[in-house]
TrEMBL record:
Signal sequence range: none
Organism: Limulus polyphemus
Subcellular location field: Membrane
Protein name: Natural resistance-associated macrophage protein 2-like isoform X1
Pfam families associated with the record: Nramp (PF01566)
Length: 570
C-alpha cells in the first residue's frame, strides 16, 4: 500500500531525530541544526534525570554465549521490578489464598508469575531496543486525548499501589510497637521515611540497587523463618505447585484465585521496568549489543521473579498450614492460652478466620511466640518500604514520559503520598483496623481495571515494525502474549465484577454510574485494541467509516520502510 503525502509528513515529524544513514546511531545528520537540537534535548534530559544520573558500564568479555561478569553488570532493574510482586497487597493475597484454599492455588501463583515474566520481557525489549520507556513512547505515538487518559489511568494504579504500601507499613509499625504506635501514626511515619530513603540514590546507582537487594533479602529471611517455624507439609506444597486443579473449592477460593492474578501483575510495573533498563550502557547502533542486553535482562528478570515466587510460596504455605479451616474461636483461645494481648482481635465465634496481614501476624504470635509476630512485622515493613520507593520511581517515569513534565523527586512524592495518605489516614482515625486492611480488596479491584492500559501499549509497541524493527515480536510471541493478555484482562474484570456486586450499595444511582463508567471504559479499551490490530496488519480497520480516522495516526507508524533497525532512539 503506497504511503500518502500526509503519512509521509507524519513519519518525518515523528522520526525527525533519526537519520537512516550508516552514522545515524551516533547522532550525526546532514543538518547541523538538528544535531544541535538533539544535543540540547539530551543535555536537558540528563540534567533532569534522577535514576539515570549514573549509567552502568557493561564489561567486555571473551565468552560469546554467557558471562557472569556481564550478568552482574545487568543485575539490578529486574530485582527492583520484582518488588512489585512482593508488596503488601501481594503478601495479603498470598496469606488469604492459603487461608481459603490451603495449598490448592499455589499453581496459579506460579503460572501468574510466569505470565508476569512474559509481559515484563516485552516491556524490557521495548526499553532496550528503542532507548525510550513505555510512557515516552505513548507520549510520542498516541494522540493527545488518549495519552492523557492513559496517563490518568496509570497514575490511579500508582496511587492505589501507594495506598497499599502505606497500609502495610502502618500495620507493621502497629505490630512492632505492640499497638503503642496508632495506625494513623504509622501512616504519618511513611511520609518521613519515604523522603529519607529517596536521598539514598545520591550515593550511587549500585548502592541504591544494593539497598533494594537488602530489603528483598530481609523479606526472604523473615518469611523464610516463618516457613521453617510452621513447617508445612512439603508434599502438599509440591502438589499445590504442580497439580493444576482445585478440587472441592468453593466460590471464595475461585475469587481468591482470580485475585492472585490481579495482585501479581501490576500495571505501572511494566512502565517502571521499561525505564529501569535504560540505566545500562547499550550501544543501540550495534545489533549484537541489543540482543545481548535483551538476553541478560531476561535472565536477570527470571532470577528475580523466581526469588519473589519462593517468598510468595513461603507466605501461602505458612497460612495454608496454620489458618486453613481455623475458626475465630480457635485463634482466640490460642491467644488467651499464650497470654497475648491481641486475643480480642478474633471474636469468640465459629466463623472461619478472615485473614489479613495484621491478623496473620497476630496468629503467628499466638501460635509460635511473640518473636514470630515481630519477625513477620519486619518482613511487612521491608515489603512496604521497598515498594514505596519503586512506586515513587514509577510515578516519576510516568509523569516525565507522558507529560514531559520534570518534577523534582520531593514534589512528586509529596503529591502522590498526599493523595494516598488522605483517605488512608481518615480510615485509620475514624474506623478500625479491619476497615483499613479491607481497603486492599478495593485497591486490588481498582488496579485490576487499569491493567489493559499497560498490557495493550506494551503489546502494540513490541509488535510494531516501525518501532522495533527486526526485534519486533514474532508470530508465536504475538499469539502467546495476546492470548495471555485477553485471559488476564478477562480474569481481572471478573474479579472487579464480583467485588462491585458484594461491596457497593445496591442502588439505582450506583448502577447507572457503573454502567456509564463501563461503557466509556470498554470504548477506550476497544480503541487501544484497534490500534494493536492495525499494528498486527489489520490495515482495513483504517478504512472503516467513523472509526478509521481515529486509528489513522498510529497506523502511520507502520510505513513500508526498508530499515531493519528501530525508528526511535534516545
Amino acid at each position: 500500500m503506497p504511503t500518502t503525502d500526509t503519512e509521509s509528513s507524519f513519519i518525518e515529524e515523528t522520526c525527525k531525530e533519526v537519520d537512516h544513514s550508516p552514522n545515524h546511531h551516533k547522532g550525526l545528520t546532514e543538518n547541523p541544526s538538528i544535531d544541535a537540537d538533539y544535543g540540547e534535548q539530551q543535555t536537558l534530559r540528563s540534567n533532569r534525570s534522577t535514576y539515570f544520573e549514573q549509567k552502568i558500564h557493561i564489561p567486555t568479555s571473551e565468552a560469546s554465549i554467557f558471562s557472569f561478569r556481564k550478568l552482574w553488570a545487568f543485575t539490578g532493574p529486574g530485582f527492583l521490578m520484582s518488588i512489585a510482586y512482593l508488596d503488601p497487597g501481594n503478601i495479603e493475597s498470598d496469606l488469604q489464598s492459603g487461608t481459603v484454599a490451603e495449598f490448592k492455588l499455589l499453581w496459579i501463583l506460579m503460572w501468574a508469575t510466569v505470565l508476569g515474566l512474559v509481559m515484563q520481557r516485552l516491556a524490557v525489549r521495548v526499553g532496550v531496543v528503542t532507548g525510550l520507556n513505555l510512557a515516552e513512547l505513548c507520549q510520542r505515538i498516541y494522540p493527545k486525548v488518549p495519552r492523557l487518559i492513559l496517563w490518568i489511568m496509570i497514575e490511579i494504579a500508582i496511587i492505589g499501589s501507594d495506598m497499599q504500601e502505606v497500609i502495610g507499613t502502618a500495620i507493621a509499625f502497629y505490630l512492632l510497637s505492640n499497638k503503642a504506635i496508632p495506625l494513623y501514626g504509622g501512616v504519618l511515619i511513611t511520609i518521613v521515611d519515604t523522603f529519607t530513603f529517596l536521598f539514598l540514590d545520591k550515593y550511587g546507582l549500585r548502592k541504591l540497587e544494593a539497598l533494594f537487594g537488602f530489603l528483598i533479602t530481609v523479606m526472604a529471611i523473615t518469611f523464610g523463618y516463618e516457613y521453617v517455624r510452621v513447617a508445612p507439609t512439603q508434599t502438599e506444597v509440591v502438589k499445590g505447585l504442580f497439580y493444576t486443579w482445585c478440587s472441592h473449592c468453593d466460590s471464595k477460593a475461585l475469587l481468591q484465585a482470580v485475585g492472585i492474578v490481579g495482585a501479581v501483575i501490576m500495571p505501572h510495573n511494566l512502565y517502571l521496568h521499561s525505564a529501569l533498563v535504560k540505566s545500562r550502557e547499550v550501544d543501540r547502533s550495534k545489533r549484537n549489543e541489543i540482543k545481548e542486553a535483551n538476553k541478560y535482562f531476561f535472565i536477570e528478570s527470571a532470577i528475580a521473579l523466581f526469588v519473589s515466587l519462593v517468598i510468595n510460596i513461603f507466605v501461602v504455605s505458612v497460612f495454608a498450614e496454620g489458618l486453613y479451616n481455623k475458626t475465630n474461636a480457635d485463634v482466640h483461645e490460642l491467644c488467651l492460652t499464650n497470654n497475648l494481648l491481641h486475643a480480642s482481635d478474633f471474636p469468640n465465634n465459629t466463623n472461619n478466620v478472615e485473614a489479613d496481614i495484621y491478623k496473620g501476624g497476630v496468629f503467628l504470635g499466638c501460635q509460635f511466640g511473640v518473636a514470630a509476630m515481630y519477625i513477620w512485622a519486619v518482613g511487612i515493613l521491608a515489603a512496604g518500604q521497598s515498594s514505596t520507593m519503586t512506586g515513587t520511581y514509577a510515578g516519576q517515569f510516568v509523569m516525565e514520559g507522558f507529560l514531559d513534565l520534570h518534577w523534582t523527586r520531593w514534589k512528586r512524592v509529596l503529591l502522590t503520598r498526599t493523595i494516598a495518605i488522605c483517605p488512608t489516614i481518615l480510615v485509620a482515625i475514624f474506623s478500625n483496623i479491619d476497615d483499613l486492611t479491607g481497603m486492599n480488596d478495593l485497591l486490588n479491584a481498582l488496579m485490576s481495571l487499569q491493567l489493559p492500559f499497560a498490557l495493550l501499549p506494551t503489546l502494540t509497541f513490541s509488535s510494531s515494525v516501525a518501532i522495533m524493527g527486526d526485534f519486533r515480536n514474532g508470530v508465536i510471541n504475538k499469539v502467546i502474549a495476546s492470548v495471555l493478555s485477553v485471559m488476564v484482562v478477562g480474569i481481572n474484570l471478573y474479579f472487579v465484577f464480583n467485588f462491585t456486586q458484594s461491596a457497593l450499595p445496591h442502588h439505582w444511582a450506583v448502577y447507572v454510574g457503573i454502567a456509564i463508567f463501563m461503557f466509556l471504559y470498554v470504548l477506550f479499551v476497544l480503541y487501544l485494541v484497534g490500534i494493536f490490530l492495525v499494528v498486527l496488519g489489520w490495515k482495513q480497520l483504517v478504512t472503516v467509516s467513523y472509526i478509521g480516522k481515529y486509528l489513522r495516526e498510529p497506523y502511520m507508524l507502520e510505513p513500508q520502510l526498508s530499515h531493519s533497525t528501530p525508528v526511535f532512539y534516545s
